[in-house]
Amino acid sequence: MAGKIIKAPRGTQDILGTDSYKWQFVERLALENAGLFGFSEMRTPTFEQMDLFKRSVGDTTDVVQKEMYEVRAEKGKDLYGLKPEGTAGAVRSAIENNLLKGALPLKVCYVTPCFRHERPQAGRLREFHQFGVEMFGAQSPSADVEVICVARELFQMIGLKQVMLNINSIGCPTCRAEYHKALTEYFRQYQDKLCTTCLERLDKNPMRILDCKSTVCSEIAKGAPVVLDYLCDDCKEHFEGVKKRLDALGIEYKIDPTIVRGLDYYTKTVFEFISGDLGAQATVCGGGRYDGLVKQMGGDPTPALGFAVGLERLLLIMEAQGIEIPKPETCELFIASMGEAANIKACELTNALRSEGFYAECDLMNRSVKAQMKYANKIGAKYTMVLGESELESGIAKLKEMETGTEREVDFRADLAQALYDITIERATEDLAEEFGGEALASAMGMKR
Ligand code: ATP
Ligand code: MG
């Protein structure tokens, strides 16, 4: 029975071969760059117990209240959630695997899919990807700055322009108590105007109202007291320490007292990297400290902090700024063949080339030589070679450079890989000579005239 075509879920996207190299590029850069700061990759499950997210992300946040995907096995009774972010799993894993009893600070990083049931739009998906880092055990402001530097360095390596760093401090539970009182008083004046979710938040978690996306609530929030005015001495000193270090390292930033972040676990320093190339979804990276979370999740009290970069948004900025990502190499050699014996020989030769690290292909479709050449053209093969009866007999075939049409004879029974190496080097030398002039090239290679 011919079925109706099933489409991918709304808010998800396929990353096809025409784009996957871009993902590989940014993911590799992100992990390598983090490696230079001592972060090693950690992979945690795509789903976790629902309670993990309720307790860490917070059950008065938008993420938990409105955006979670729940998962239940058909026959199971346990409730799981697809991860909406990476920190909860990393904290769980660090505690469960006793990593916090090893060398501190512990530095981990990850690339992970995340799931949030939001309204899909440019830069906002229901399945998206984050690159994130988490650092455990360090309470010094230097740690905050190092974590900020990991993101900043990545953006610089990629060549992003105009990505602005905004920072704020949202204090600790001590100073937060005073602030909550002031906030509750402020918002109570408007209680008949707030949305129903925020009305509930008024007593439970008034800071969440500052993060509400409804126009009425966000308008009211504009006049709310700011947390920076309520910091205790310890939090004030920490924030001064962060600013002093950012200044010393020549890192530009703005203080934005309205950043509160959408997840409950943050304390003290919070920060965002913002780009003008993203439209409404301007935040490419969000992060901060979460000094209370490890204890809250059952571990020993351990200060911690981290950030997450949205990879879709990162790629959107790169595209908007015309940043080129190196394209994967195309096929070096397509070996066409006529007849079964030649086809078998072609298979053997392509396999040998692959073991030498060359990208090679041969016919798998039983096509005519003409159709094989058409395919070779389509995949952008740099060289082609046709094997027929006479080539099999003599062991000599013509190697054709597709771009120029020039042909040369090669003995394919001898070392075909070596022949390709020689040609590649010859071509590279010609390119260099063209670019820099023969003399410059000769001197660069240490040759005397
Ligand atoms: P926003 O305010 O844009 O909703 P957020 O505060 O919910 O972001 P975080 O939870 O801090 O985002 O996640 C870190 C990063 O992950 C964001 O800065 C963004 O780049 C990316 N991100 C978050 N939600 C989405 C989404 N639905 N689609 C694509 N990227 C996202
Ligand atoms: Mg959000």
Automatic annotation (TrEMBL):
<protein>
    <recommendedName>
        <fullName>Histidine--tRNA ligase</fullName>
        <ecNumber>6.1.1.21</ecNumber>
    </recommendedName>
</protein>
<dbReference type="InterPro" id="IPR045864">
    <property type="entry name" value="aa-tRNA-synth_II/BPL/LPL"/>
</dbReference>
<feature type="binding site">
    <location>
        <position position="134"/>
    </location>
    <ligand>
        <name>L-histidine</name>
    </ligand>
</feature>
<keyword id="KW-0648">Protein biosynthesis</keyword>
<dbReference type="GO" id="GO:0006427">
    <property type="term" value="P:histidyl-tRNA aminoacylation"/>
</dbReference>
<dbReference type="InterPro" id="IPR004516">
    <property type="entry name" value="HisRS/HisZ"/>
</dbReference>
<keyword id="KW-0030">Aminoacyl-tRNA synthetase</keyword>
<dbReference type="GO" id="GO:0016740">
    <property type="term" value="F:transferase activity"/>
</dbReference>
<keyword id="KW-0547">Nucleotide-binding</keyword>
<dbReference type="InterPro" id="IPR036621">
    <property type="entry name" value="Anticodon-bd_dom_sf"/>
</dbReference>
<keyword id="KW-0963">Cytoplasm</keyword>
<keyword id="KW-0067">ATP-binding</keyword>
<dbReference type="InterPro" id="IPR006195">
    <property type="entry name" value="aa-tRNA-synth_II"/>
</dbReference>
<feature type="binding site">
    <location>
        <position position="261"/>
    </location>
    <ligand>
        <name>L-histidine</name>
    </ligand>
</feature>
<feature type="binding site">
    <location>
        <begin position="265"/>
        <end position="266"/>
    </location>
    <ligand>
        <name>L-histidine</name>
    </ligand>
</feature>
<dbReference type="InterPro" id="IPR015807">
    <property type="entry name" value="His-tRNA-ligase"/>
</dbReference>
<feature type="binding site">
    <location>
        <begin position="85"/>
        <end position="87"/>
    </location>
    <ligand>
        <name>L-histidine</name>
    </ligand>
</feature>
<dbReference type="GO" id="GO:0005737">
    <property type="term" value="C:cytoplasm"/>
</dbReference>
<feature type="domain" description="Aminoacyl-transfer RNA synthetases class-II family profile">
    <location>
        <begin position="24"/>
        <end position="326"/>
    </location>
</feature>
<dbReference type="InterPro" id="IPR041715">
    <property type="entry name" value="HisRS-like_core"/>
</dbReference>
<feature type="binding site">
    <location>
        <position position="130"/>
    </location>
    <ligand>
        <name>L-histidine</name>
    </ligand>
</feature>
<dbReference type="GO" id="GO:0004821">
    <property type="term" value="F:histidine-tRNA ligase activity"/>
</dbReference>
<dbReference type="InterPro" id="IPR004154">
    <property type="entry name" value="Anticodon-bd"/>
</dbReference>
<comment type="similarity">
    <text>Belongs to the class-II aminoacyl-tRNA synthetase family.</text>
</comment>
<dbReference type="Pfam" id="PF03129">
    <property type="entry name" value="HGTP_anticodon"/>
</dbReference>
<dbReference type="GO" id="GO:0005524">
    <property type="term" value="F:ATP binding"/>
</dbReference>
<keyword id="KW-0436">Ligase</keyword>
<dbReference type="InterPro" id="IPR033656">
    <property type="entry name" value="HisRS_anticodon"/>
</dbReference>
<feature type="binding site">
    <location>
        <position position="116"/>
    </location>
    <ligand>
        <name>L-histidine</name>
    </ligand>
</feature>
<comment type="subunit">
    <text>Homodimer.</text>
</comment>
<dbReference type="Pfam" id="PF13393">
    <property type="entry name" value="tRNA-synt_His"/>
</dbReference>
<dbReference type="GO" id="GO:0140096">
    <property type="term" value="F:catalytic activity, acting on a protein"/>
</dbReference>
